[in-house]
Please model this.
Amino acid sequence: MDKQKDIIESYIDSVEKQKQLYKRTLIVVIIAQVLGGAGLAAGITVGALLAEDMLGSNTLAGLPIALFTLGSAGAALIIGNLSQRFGRRIGLASGFITGGIGAAGVVFAAIFNNVIILFIALLVYGAGTATNLQARYAGTDLAGEKQRATAVSMAMVSTTFGAVAGPNLVGVMGKFATSIGVPALAGPFILAGAAFILAGLVLFALLRPDPLKIAQALAANDIKGDANTNQTEDAPKLNQRTITIGATVMVVTQIIMIAVMTMTPVHMEEHGHGLSAVGLIIGFHIGAMYLPSLLTGVLVDRVGRKVMGIASGITLMISGVMAAYAPTDSIAMLTIALILLGLGWNFGLISGTALIVDGTTPANRAKVQGTVDVLIALSGAAGGALSGMVVAGSSFATLSIGSGIISMLLVPVILYVLRKQ
Model:
């Protein structure tokens, strides 16, 4: 305990060591996010197909996504609380390793063709999804105010590499699975389990000293210094206004992105487009969700969270209008609409995340972040479920226009809530 205290004290006394730890933390987070992205994407790619194969029907094929989304919501809260109490290292490592155990459970369920075990395992697998999202916060703990969005963006870009690699290894892992007597569709979950557990071990071994613990010590030292100089200002507290708008931006953009993205393949199939066209458009969409992150992070840090939050709403509105009025035979126009959909989500997630960090202190940050990520996970699940109802009751155009209108509501909300900031 004394040794740990001495280590923390050495960082309090050295700005240079704080900068070095910030850079090292980003590198560790990037490595973990590449692995986490592979684990996430590989499992998602075949989850519905595995359920359909085991159930012998496509009626509940969408249940896997619902289950690990629900699991990720519960895990986000637990990981946030663990991180707040024991540090990022313990919280994130526990989440990834738990997700890996869930993936192993899916493989076990496939081997024994046990649907009950499959559903339970998918809930546990959701912990990896939640951790993959929460890991973006770790790089911000020691970041300056003008570095926070950039730190988030670096974590998001690194997730892309794993997310792209995962689906491309589905065929390879399927062959590997059959070679060891495991159903082919369980193969990607072997990769997911290994990737999640390895990501957890990387964080557990390398995220030392814990960036959140150092940030908490620095904040406590600042408060102590203020007291010693007879400053009477209260210790930093939650900025509810900033947290509210940050959470609102991320929740709204998540609902809209998931809703339109979920129904685009259905809309295309109804108008005679093949799987190759669907894959092309969704591929561009996912690329737009993550690849612009480095530029977005710089913009959020330099032009401001409010401006980029508003840009998110406007971009999503344009996307909705284009998707609604794109000719049914125009792949190009729908592709542009889905690229803008991903870009608008990217603007919203990074600016919203930066606002959450701005509105919290090291003493409460991880717990608040976990709570907000619960809302994001649940809003995504709601967006996916409601989108099908809207299209069934009306049309894809109605869904797209409605999404555009809702996204534009972010503009007056941001201006009103942050009017004094």
Observations:
- Residues 140 and 312 are 21 Å apart (CA to CA).
- The chain has two domains: 7-228, 240-417.
- The domain at 7-228 is CATH 1.20.1250.20 (Growth Hormone; Chain: A;).
- The mean pLDDT is 86.
